What we know:
Low-confidence stretches of chain C: none
Structural class of chain B: alpha/beta
Shape of chain B: globular
CATH topology of the largest domain in chain C: Rossmann fold
Structural class of chain C: alpha+beta
Shape of chain C: elongated
Mean pLDDT of chain C: 89
CATH superfamily of the largest domain in chain B: Periplasmic binding protein-like II
Distance between the termini of chain C: 36 Å
Number of helices of chain B: 18
Number of domains of chain C: 2
Oligomer: heterotrimer
Strand order of the largest sheet of chain C: 6-7-8-3-9-10
Amino acid sequence: MSEVFVKNEKSYKTKKIISNVLVYLFLAAIAITILVPFYWMLLTSVKDAIMIEQTPPLLFIKPSEWKLLNYTSLFDLVQSGPRRGQPLFPFFTYMKNTIVISIITTIGTSITTILAAYAFARLNFKGRDVVFGIIIATMMIPGEIFILTNFLTVNRLGWYDIMNQTYMDAILAMTLPFMTSVFYTFYLRQTFKQIPNELYYAAKVDGTTDFKYLLKVMIPVAMPTIVTIIILNSMGAWSAYIWPAMVTTKDSYRLVSNGLRGAFTDTSTGRTDYGQQMASATLVTLPLLIVFFTFRKQIMRGVSRSGIKG
Amino acid sequence: MKKILLSIMALMVVFTLVGCVEMATTTTTELTTSTTTGVGTTTKIIMDLPDDPVDISFWHIYGADKSALLDQLIIEFEEMYPNVTITSTSQSDYNTLREKINLGISVGQVPTMALGYPDHFAGYVQAGAAYSLNNMINSNVRYEITDSSSSIYGQFVDVGVDLSDFVPGYLAENNQYVGGQYFTMPYSKSTEMMAVNRTVLKSHIAAIRAAGITISDQGFLSHTTPLTFTQIQQLGAIMLNSTAVTDVTAKKFAYLLNYDSSGNMFINMSRQWKAPYTNSAGEILIDNPTTKSMLNYIDAMFKQRVFVLPAIWSQTYGSNNFKYGDVAMTVGSTAGVLYNIPTTKDPSANLKFGIFDVDFLQVPQTATASNQTVTLNDGTNNYQLTSSLSAVQQGPNIGVFQKASSNEKLFAWLFIKHLTSTENTVRWAIDTGYLPVRLSAYTSDVEVKLSPTVSMTYTSFMQIGLDFWAADGIIDWPSTDVRRDYIYKSMVANIAKNQTEYYQYDPAFAAGSRSAGSATVRVEAGFCLDFIFNKSKTPTQALDFFKNQVTW
Amino acid sequence: MEIKMLDLTKIFVSKDKKEVHAVDHVDLTIPSGKLIGLLGPSGCGKSTTLYLIAGLLKQNQGQIFFGEDEVSDMPPEKRGIGLVFQNYALYPHMTVRENILFPLENLKIEKTEAKERTIEMAQLVGLGEMLDRKPKELSGGQQQRVAIARALVKKPRVLLLDEPLSNLDARLRLQTREEIKRIQRETGITTVFVTHDQEEAMSISDEIVVMKDGVIQQMGEPQEVYDFPINMFVAQFLGSPQINIFNGEIKDKKIYANGMMIGKSKLPDQPIKIGIRPEGFIVDKEKQSEFKFEIDLVETIGRDTTLIIEVPGNEGSLLDKLTFKAIVDASEHIKAGDWVHFNIKPDKMHLFNLEGKLLK
């Protein structure tokens, strides 16, 4: 008996080791696939034009050989012409716009998503499930289709007047169509639905209004999900490309994503200055990284614990 | 709920748009106006220039580097016409620019004027949104500038323009639209040229002369007469190594001639072979025996390493491998001249021939003149064809939109005239590397600032390259001579000028009910050669595939 | 505060449009200051009744009075009730203190007073030390006590408990049961306690109300209802082990169970159901009684012996068996396979007609 037991123990241990090795290999492979592009961005940003085009490519550069020209030239000023003295690549303008847009859409999305999710999860009104079904069905329509309709809407609202679009118009045009999200509404509704009905009844008995209940109970309880939504949404706003390019009429209203795409391509040859592009990409990524590392705990908690126990 | 409404609206809009397109195609014929009035011969009608404030929006894609001069040109224009304000905006890239205008057409939000490729404007014309410039071009109105704050106070301004001063190849591209209308004027144009490794050519002088090709003692081939493909093959026999590796001691190359753009290669070779490709009506004509034999010939040349595509080095452009000595010659855009010059900054270990001399030639042709009966031979098969000189012309044009008011249209047109004036086209050309759109640029005596300290006329700029060639590359200019900085640019400008005589344009058309738009066809043409090059398809298969991709 | 329900009816419409009378013309008066157990199998309408009292559901018909005060159309927060749920329904993100304080935030109560009352309530339920813990750091019993404190903190007129012990394990259930009883006594609040567990209801309640299919079957003190069930359902629902039901008849003033004479009755001849509590069996050592069975299984726990008897059912097949249980003194020394004669304690025997109604 004891021998058999020992043998089992051994095979169990080997199995455990093998499975651990496999798990770690898998994780390492995934980590590499995620990190390599990132590393490549950083590496390219410290290469000069010749190093970038070198074959075989340089996989590592000593810190002493780093070229910081790509970074410094980002802040070069225009030498002549009417734009003299302005930055060649208006990094801070783009950054400011991006941050403003991210904050506005995230606040907007959070508000509409929370209210809609609450209505669909908690309130009983006629046709609720039908309406919800229809809204969910719109997720099947590809986003590109909405570009045209949103464009028409924004235009009708007078926010896309190419002769005199104000900064406020541009901000509204860029943010309004993204102040709702079917997917986030659905996601949050599911979380809200997991909150036991009794909590609501208890609050009702205590004279809590629906709105106060939402504010004081539902939102705090669903906070991990809401944090996830906020993160995903602000990341989305950060990398939004097509729409902001479509509805802004002035360069100074654009976002970093648009700037990154257009600024470093030589229009006559179609060649791109990858070094500068990667340098600015690094600068754009930096705030996200800082946010991630600062709020890593909250983010991880939000992502890993979106379910609630009753 | 909002999204549902919106999607219903989307459907409605799609239908309305379809309606618009149909209307546009039926009404454009109306736009055709009389083009009989010559300019300059008739008497001018003198009128007062409208002095109401006019706002003009101009969309382009130029980044900060190029828009510096553009901004300067705008300021000068605004000084000439103080009642006009031009807002120029970069839309960052051509796709965004086109998409925004296409979306804008549906809601009436288009700029007054915009930059665009011919196929973009073909789309705008189809949607009825582009404005025919013919009335402006042929106008016999002459305005007197009566505003004393204008920089040209008291002078006269003609609305019409003498088209004969424009490079004919560009004009042909710009009036290919319905009814021979000019919906655009040429603006930022470039062409292709061929860079060659003169140092290595020179070391093979004896063999090259033996083959009957004229070459100078310093390795210069003719800059006025293009090489023929037969001569290219002869150079291949001399300069190609027996394997696909460059032999530095024997001065033999792995590959002979690189084409950066396989799309341009397909299209331009079709012209040179007189092989039908497409026409302005949007018909796809590639299914013909000439195109087939052309593809067979190209296939044979690929296999013999006479032609090569940058894909072989996993590159988009061949300029690096040209510098590294992997290939003897390379065909690429005139705008990318300096990418082909090896310098001390290049990693010396990669430069197989060190820092060698580069010369620029016209792109190779089937024959040195058009309409000759030519026989090409790939070593086993003969290919009969009638020659036609052809070089690619590329780059955006500039046009005005129908939506603009008549005053806006007038001043937008005057702004186009301003941008394309002899002086300004020269400034633009030297500043950006694009080519002048006017013939008079080559004889203009306007001094242009090349750098904060250097100014010269375009003629003297052109003369630098001519002098260099005339001296057979042996120049005794002092090392401080500014001319040394402009040798390559000047050589390329000369090559481009020599090619202007046989520019042929790629007909532009939007996607139709039976076939793809010209931009897509160009992309697929490139893929066709890519497939042949990487041996994934035979020429016949590649052509069939191409045909299937662009017609339905 | 007395709670009075008059003709109270709640109809639910199911998805296939069928009407279900969850509460069916209920007339019920709950005396002031008492703890009432609302008892019945699941789906009997007891929770619905509770929610109607709470105002969380709206009745289709009938009236509810708290004392003189009609509350039929009053929203829940105006009725002055405290409600405790099976799953405690504590706010998971709030501490015990915040949970208890929460109901007071909606009433205009001074902050200092609110804080005092919170501490007072926490002490009442024995959680004075745990005010700053989160619910998940407490045991189930403690959580339930927080829920009770939260229900009581605003000094309601009525305390309603919906299956408050069902989520607790056996030991905690006993403890908490006592705790509820104690708190109710100390506060003297009229309390309605919903449960499906008859033992729980009987041990804690001043009076129990047995419900079935939305209709009140019987109300009374627990022992009284146990001893004098008004029908076979009540008899069967109360008591563990369950009452034994024999098919029988009355013939010539004699009562026969399974064809064996077990007693006498003045009732007219008729087929009947006979309910005999397990503790109603007395072993007849003289073997005089006609009422005898072969014992299939004997379980002795402590001083009681449970005799398990299986007899063929009405269908007559092998698997169709009726099981009866008799609890006798352990000193009887009975083994499986023995034939035992029984006498029946008359007060432990109830006669029902075939519809289940008690025959008097």
